[in-house]
Amino acid sequence: MKDSKPAKTSDAKKKKKGGHGRPFKKNDPATGFIDARINRSGQNRGFSQVKTEVRELAQIILTERVDDIHNKKTVTMSRLEKLFRDWLASNDVAKQREVVQYGVGKVADEVIVNSEIENFISSNLDLLTDGQVERLRKGESGLGILGELLKDAAKIVKENKAKQK
Questions:
Q1: Would you say the C-alpha torsion 131, 138, 104, 91 has a positive or negative sign?
Q2: For residue range 9-63, what is the model confidence (pLDDT) as tens digits?
Q3: How far apart are CA 146 and CA 157, in angstroms?
Q4: What is the pTM of this model?
Q5: Dist. CA 134–CA 11, nearest whole Å
Q6: Taking the domains of the chain in order of start, what are their residue ranges?
Q7: Reduced to 3 states, what is the DSSP secondary structure of residue 78?
Q8: Could you read off the pLDDT of 110-130 as tens digits, one per residue?
Q9: What mean pLDDT is reported for the chain?
Q10: Residue-wise DSSP of 125-163
Q11: What is the 8-class DSSP label of residue 71?
């Protein structure tokens, strides 16, 4: 007869071994303990440090004073000012636009109104009331007036259906 060994249930219940290194500890407001390993910046620590160093270096370089010949005179200005002046004097429109946008803010992109709507309205002016035509002449959006026209048309269709019943 074979010796039957009971199943070892205690092995399955054993606590799993944790990772290597010092275990994580929560911040304790009572003792003031703060685990310095917690990264609350949302970025990789190395990247954050490099980004900060690059920003500081760029600020130092851009604020350095340099001599430049301007209108046959030697003028002392910051590197950033010289860069902006070079961009403005260049034939590249993109550089000129960048200088203006740095100065006054980004210009909003133009919203292009669908030309088909405008064509429909202009070819069907007889459907519009005199007040709507006048508002169009004053520069009101054709899209809003077209919306009113569609609402009026839907109302008439509903009324006609109600009369037929």
A1: positive
A2: 555 566 666 667 777 677 777 777 777 777 666 767 677 778 888 999 999 999 9
A3: 16
A4: 0.40
A5: 87
A6: 65-109, 115-164
A7: strand
A8: 665 567 777 777 787 787 888
A9: 80
A10: GGGS-HHHHHHHHTT--HHHHHHHHHHHHHHHHHHHHHH
A11: T
